[in-house]
Amino acid sequence: MSVPDVIAIDGPSGAGKGTVARAVAKALDCRHVDTGAMYRAVAWRALQQGRALDDEQAVAAVASGAVLALDGPRVAIDGEDVSRAIRTPEMDVAASAVARLPRVRAALVARQRDLAGGGSIVMEGRDIGTIVFPDAPVKIFLDASPAARAARRAQDPAHRQPRGARLADVARALDARDRRDRTRRASPLEQAPDAVRIDTTELAIDAVVAQVMAVIRDRRRTVSRS
After folding, report:
1. pLDDT digits (tens, 9 = 90+) for 97-119
2. For residue 1, is it within any domain?
C-alpha cells in the first residue's frame, strides 16, 4: 500500500499513541519514531551529567550534541541503552520539564524533521501535526478519558510505577503532566485543526488501528484524484 510520507500521531499520555503508532508502522512497513523518547533520553543524559533541568543552555547543548538512536523499542543515547531507564514516573516529570525549554525543542524538532528524510514514517508525540510537520498529509489526535488513560498507564509494563503506587497516584501524575504540556509556551499539546480526533476510551487497539488505516486510505484516494 502506498503511504503518505509522514503520518503524525499526537495525543496525551495513555491515549494509545505508542501502541497504535507501532501497529500502523508495522502494517505499512515503514519506520516508527517515538519523539517522546527523545525528550526522555535528553533529560536522562542531562541528569547523569549533573545539569539542572531548568538550565536551558546546558540542556539544549545535550539535545544538540548527543548521539540518539531509536530502533523500535530500543532507545540509546551516546551509545548507552536507556530503554528502561527513561520509562519511570521520575522521567515523566523530567521529560516534561525539558520539553518546556524552547531551545531544547528547537534542537529536537530539527532532528525529527531530518528523520523524515529517509522515506515514509509514522511519528508520534505531542506536537507532530502542529509544529514538527504542520503540512503532514495525515494527522491523527488520539485521546481518552482521564480514568482510561490512568488505568492503561498503570498496567503498561513499559512504564514502571513505584511499588505500592495506587491508580489515584497515577491519575494525579498524568493530570499534572497534561497541565504542564498543555500550558507550556513552546509547542503546547493541542490538536491540529485538520487532525482526525479518535477517542480511544472504549475502543480496542485493533479498532483504533483500523480507523487510522481508514484515514490513510481516504487520503490516498484524495491524492490520487488530485
Report:
1. 999 999 999 999 999 999 887 67
2. no
